[in-house]
């Protein structure tokens, strides 16, 4: 297969996965993500194609699909793989910024599903802050903003670790 055709198929499958995820078709979105990955793997490494970036895009969508299917461990792993790329090279104002926000949100959903409420709270708060920070349109992400706000209310404030009896903060020693 010609590389240009493989690139087109990969992005078409990713676009389809995003649409399916927005429609709540989680199993179909996961299958489309796998198809996008297969198409991208057929592109030779010497071609001018950002394999790592595309993989991050796929994992951002796949994390939401897996979490929606109740596969929280796999969803968390996928979100973390996407965030590994985005946290180093991501630009919030570019098109990939939407997927970056989605990966952070999916990480929060996966953490909540695993019972890690404090970490989930932090992820949902970060997703909300990223949505507020993004200057470009958030087309299609307004539902994500509402879901993040609902999650913050549902999770409440993160719990503070218990302090041992007689605990004093460092500044109290010097005052």
TrEMBL record:
Organism domain of life: Bacteria
SUPFAM superfamilies linked: TPR-like
First and last residue of the signal peptide: none
Domain annotation DUF3856: ranges: 2-143
InterPro entries with a match to the protein in the record: DUF3856, TPR-like_helical_dom_sf
Protein name: DUF3856 domain-containing protein
